[in-house]
Amino acid sequence: MWFCPKCRCEYKQTERPKEYICFCGETVNPKFDPWSIPHSCGKVCARQLTPKCGHSCLLLCHPGPCPPCPKMVQARCHCGSQPPTSRRCCAKEWSCGPCPLCPERSTQSCICGRNRSIRPCAEPQWLCTEVCGKLLECSNHSCSDICHRGKCPPCPKSGKRTCPCGKTTLDLPCTEDVPPCGDTCELLLSCGHHNCTRRCHSGPCETCRQMVNKICRCGKREKSIQCSQEFICDIKCPKLKNCQRHQCRRKCCHGQCPPCEQICGRQLSCKNHKCPSVCHRGLCYPCPLTKDVSCNCGSTTLTVPCGRERVTKPPKCSQVCKTPSNCHHLIRKSHRCHFGPCPPCKQICGYKLASCDHSCRMACHDNKTISRAESRPLTSPWTTNHEEKQSIPIRCGPCSVPVMRTCLGEHETISMPCFKDGEFSCGRPCGRLLSCDNHRCQLQCHTVIQAPDEERSGLDCEQCEKPCIKPIQSGCTHECLRRCHPGECGDCRQMVKRQCHCSSMSVYVKCCELTSSDDSSTKLLLSCKGNCPKMLKCGHQCSLHCHFGPCIDAKDCSRKIVVRCPCKRLKKDYPCSEAQGISLECNEECRKIVMKTEKERKEQERIQQEEEMKLHKEEVEKYERKKQGRKRRPRKQQEDVEEPSWFSVHRNVIIATVVVVAILAVVIHIALAE
């Protein structure tokens, strides 16, 4: 066997191709083309389709068998009663259905004619259940057939008969049975290879029980079994069926795998149906069905191929929307047919308001769409709360009809919505003249009660609490401390702060006294009545009280001055005016005290110098010792003392012991010799 390296088709050695041709067989040694199937010429296949219908394959040169004919033809049914329909050429033979049977019923007799019965006219021949029972020609046996026509068959036991094995022929009456001949049967058994080994016998021969070596159908196994049995191994065929999708999987297949009988079942391109054809190679045919896409009301329809209805937009309908109104208006504004909810009603509401005599002028609000978000916790950062839209009725809003109203202070008249109708303030100042006759009411526009006229203030107006701004009198720069009042202001009672003559403190004087007094009175008012702090040329303080002008002369100073001698022991008081140029001299006692003091001072200086010299000397010695370093003490010389040995210590004892032992030995030797 030789297998094609591309399609794996099996060829016998005698059928092995000798030329390299393309799949369709038109081109020898096809050239390589990267854009075509390998081993393909790239041209149209053009092979005659199977079964032959007169059309050729329209695919490019391809491996394997050609698909069924896909062309559409007009074909009638078998009986021709139906009009021709468009069908694919491979399935152009079709039946409109079996012909209906005759619906009438009639009385009909059976084949043997013994019984009659009312039966459908479409079933004229029928058999009864009675046995014929007629006597045969032999006059010994009766016919055992059931309801038959014509003569009965001859007696099966008449004429020459053979024994069961057929070797012996006997001529016996039909009343006697042919006995076995006693020879070996030797009839060919059902296996077709061996003969029966039993003696001549009646009835069929037994099955062949001879043991033979048999090869299974696929030729892969061999086994010794009875000849009558067929040897089938358990090896399943791994080859693909003609669909090249399913394996044969038949046990012990002889190589000729049956065609695939499964339904293709692959989903068609329409995504709605599956391929109903028998399992085949290549792509499935497109779905031949169509779908209708209609508008919301169904009056406009568009026919599209099956599967395109999901991506095809519904056709535009020119009919008026027939959805009934969902608000209190009986007639809705006409609009075209559409999907989803109708647009909101834009007519005026028109309901009678309860708060006034007007009607609602808002757009219809019986069905307002609001969005409500779900308030459940988010399970992940990617999840969001969905918004749910609901249509709910909303109450009529406040009346917005404009009406004319005047403010409380009668400053202006404006137009305002009806729901705001009532007393209102325009926000301007009242502006009426207060009782002080100087200012006007600054309160926000309000109702005025018991006003004498349109210019004067009433009881509801404010009371003037501002300070008086009128000038008090000439020469005074202060304002009136009273509240705003009618008429002229009185004398200024405000205290004025002024510096006194000596500039040591501030003096507070009434403004009216200061402006109305003369020079002498002014000087008296500005005096603090204290001592003058100014210093004279002599160095003493002025003895006058706070005064205007320069202080007294230093020659008139009456202060006492203490005059001392040079040693500060003697002192004497003189007036300041007489003490200029006066000096006090020391006496004899003062001189003695000075000499004694000088002597003590020199003695202390001498003692102090001696102590300093002593300290200096100690520091020099300390520095020299530190510079020479620390003196080392002489080390003690260690004398070498030799310790006596053990022998030298016990030498005498050892010698005495040796002498005694020697003497004893000599004495003992002499005693033994005698």
From TrEMBL:
<keyword id="KW-0863">Zinc-finger</keyword>
<dbReference type="GO" id="GO:0000977">
    <property type="term" value="F:RNA polymerase II transcription regulatory region sequence-specific DNA binding"/>
</dbReference>
<dbReference type="InterPro" id="IPR000967">
    <property type="entry name" value="Znf_NFX1"/>
</dbReference>
<dbReference type="InterPro" id="IPR034078">
    <property type="entry name" value="NFX1_fam"/>
</dbReference>
<keyword id="KW-0479">Metal-binding</keyword>
<dbReference type="GO" id="GO:0008270">
    <property type="term" value="F:zinc ion binding"/>
</dbReference>
<keyword id="KW-0677">Repeat</keyword>
<protein>
    <submittedName>
        <fullName>NF-X1-type zinc finger NFXL1</fullName>
    </submittedName>
</protein>
<comment type="similarity">
    <text>Belongs to the NFX1 family.</text>
</comment>
<dbReference type="Pfam" id="PF01422">
    <property type="entry name" value="zf-NF-X1"/>
</dbReference>
<dbReference type="GO" id="GO:0005634">
    <property type="term" value="C:nucleus"/>
</dbReference>
<dbReference type="GO" id="GO:0000981">
    <property type="term" value="F:DNA-binding transcription factor activity, RNA polymerase II-specific"/>
</dbReference>
<keyword id="KW-0862">Zinc</keyword>
